[in-house]
Amino acid sequence: MNKRQTIAALCISTIALSTALPVTALAQNNTVKVGLILSLTGPFASTGKQLEEGARLYIAQHGDTVAGKKIELVIKDDTGAPDHARRIAQELVVKEKAQVLGGFALTPLALAAAPVATQSKTPSIVMVAATSRVIDASPYFVRSSFTLPQVTIGVAQWAPKNGIKNVVTLVSDYGPGIDAEGSFTKQFEMSGGKVTEAIRVPMQNPDFAPFLLRVRDLKPDAVFVFLPAGVGVQFMKWVFRLIVTADSGIVTGQSGHRDHRFR
């Protein structure tokens, strides 16, 4: 078993994580501290709040004791800022004596905390950040979520088989967006489609109007979109304002009856 497999095995159980650490870390009491670095305010708060609620729900259903050791969650708000994530990781390890770190809604947040996890040898669980290379940032990182290629390759294979041959990609201009763009484009074109233009939107205060007007002018069969949580509602408002009409749309799901086309 290699080092990362060992860390993954430890992360299956919080109590197993605690037994892998020095005895001095547990000498004061029988409590295992798990530091969660979450985006609870700012544009990405919806993701952080879901992670917090999921952790608290698990404890409510299964209790806060494992093998006689009490699990204590220490939750900190990184506000979606990488510099805050790094500072909080340091505080959790040094001041709070957290034996495990977790959270990381966005790739930049995980990358900012990685040096802290490595230096302190603290096992850390990446719960969302989905850029493929994230876990390479620290040998103490494991991921419990997914990667962008995993959720883009399927639709890239499906689209050409269903008459979608001409696509524009529109992604946020940071690691996960570029990862998603690259994975989709490679598989889509291997499957017979053509990406006619790749549009990247700034992460901070994105104004979607000029980008969507460009999409409308290009008249693709479909648009492949990746945006971080928190800005999706804003994006869809602009889509319906600038693109969707009574005769064309992007309705999907069981109630969708129109073709996935832009006029």
UniProtKB/TrEMBL annotation:
Q: What is the lineage of its organism?
A: Bacteria, Pseudomonadati, Pseudomonadota, Betaproteobacteria, Burkholderiales
Species the sequence originates in: Eoetvoesiella caeni
Q: Which family does it belong to?
A: Belongs to the leucine-binding protein family.
Q: Does the keyword Iron-sulfur apply?
A: no
Q: What is this protein called?
A: Substrate-binding family protein
Leucine-binding protein domain boundaries = 31-237
Cleaved signal peptide residues? 1-27
The record's InterPro entries line, in alphabetical order, gives: BCAA_transport, Leu-bd, Peripla_BP_I
User: Which Pfam family, an example, fits this chain?
Assistant: Peripla_BP_6
Q: Which UniProt keywords apply?
A: Signal
Name the PANTHER family for this protein: LEUCINE-SPECIFIC-BINDING PROTEIN, PERIPLASMIC BINDING PROTEIN OF ABC TRANSPORTER FOR NATURAL AMINO ACIDS
